[in-house]
Task: structure prediction
Amino acid sequence: MEALGMIETRGLVALIEASDAMVKAARVKLVGVKQIGGGLVTAMVRGDVAACKAATDAGAAAAQRIGELVSVHVIPRPHGDLEEVFPHQFQRRQQHLTHGRISRASAAIRH
Result:
């Protein structure tokens, strides 16, 4: 089962640092970044529960060094309805990556 890990910071630089630390610390995939407003930004990662926990711990430590950490949370088994409510975070990124690979592969074959 894939978990969902989230880190929210005040300021983009802290979030970029946290995101970098998360993907380096564990086998997780960065699946979305959302600007909330008022300087708040959130990054979301997917992976198994232990990986998301390790990643968010590393990301939280990195964010605190650089800026202001607001919140950290891991949902072990997110309900499927979350992906219906927040589809752009989980599905569109995946489709974009897939279409990008297909487009590049098609272009390479044609030439």
The chain has a mean pLDDT of 83. DSSP finds four helices and four strands in the chain.
